[in-house]
Design brief:
With about 180 residues, the chain is an alpha+beta fold. Helices cover about 25% and strands about 40% of the residues. It has helices spanning about 15-20, 50-60, 95-110, 135-145, and strands at about 5-10, 30, 40-50, 70-80, 85-90, 125-130, 150-155, 155-165, 170-180. The strands form 2 sheets. The chain has a 5-stranded antiparallel β-sheet. Strands 3-1-8-9 form a 4-stranded antiparallel β-sheet, covered by helices on one side. The protein is globular.
């Protein structure tokens, strides 16, 4: 059996994901994600054996969390050596319900002996990847949209996906959906 690439995420409503994808200025070197691939990653695992994936599903399904609202606002970038490589939209600051969910997802992963990210978590929705974009163009784009606000989303579930890398891009397959309680 082959190990799977898995990630746990919160998806955006289609209308908001499409509005974010529509921001695409079609700059060379700035590749916007298709709307159906825009998500907030709670955890990522590069290689999970199927029996461990089954246990992870059980642990995630046992998470009980009340549904909550989350702001989606403010564009920014992550850079490598001063060069932007990820364009994201944020979720406000210090959201207790989101951080509680992240903590519980990490606890589920640790119970399965899966490694968790040790650096500080910066929750965000990745909307584009930058590969060789002119820094001046990116700066101009950010200046125009830095405070972009798509409003609040109601987080009613989180999902476990498997991800297969292909030459045409990743293919995400829903493995589990966990509903929050109202």
């Amino acid at each position: 059996m082959n190990p799977q690439r898995l990630f746990i995420a919160i998806d955006l409503p289609d209308q908001i994901a499409e509005a974010l994808a529509a921001l695409d200025p079609h700059y060379r070197g700035l590749i916007f994600l298709p709307p159906q691939q825009i998500h907030l990653t709670l955890a990522f695992f590069a290689a999970v054996e199927p029996p461990t994936a089954d246990v992870l599903k059980e642990k995630l399904a046992a998470i009980s969390l009340k549904a909550f609202f989350l702001p989606v606002t403010g564009l920014g970038t992550f850079s490598k050596k001063g060069v932007p490589h990820i364009l994201w939209i944020g979720v406000g600051h210090a959201h207790p319900h989101l951080f509680q969910l992240h903590k519980r997802v990490n606890e589920a992963a640790l119970a399965c002996n899966l490694p968790i990210e040790e650096r500080a978590w910066t929750p965000h929705f990745t909307i584009a990847r930058a590969r060789g974009i002119s820094p001046a163009l990116m700066k101009s784009f950010l200046k125009k949209y830095r405070d972009y606000d798509v409003g609040m989303i109601h987080v009613e579930e989180f999902r476990l996906y498997s991800s297969k890398l292909t030459v045409a891009g990743p293919i995400h397959t829903l493995e589990l959906s966990v509903a929050c309680r109202e």
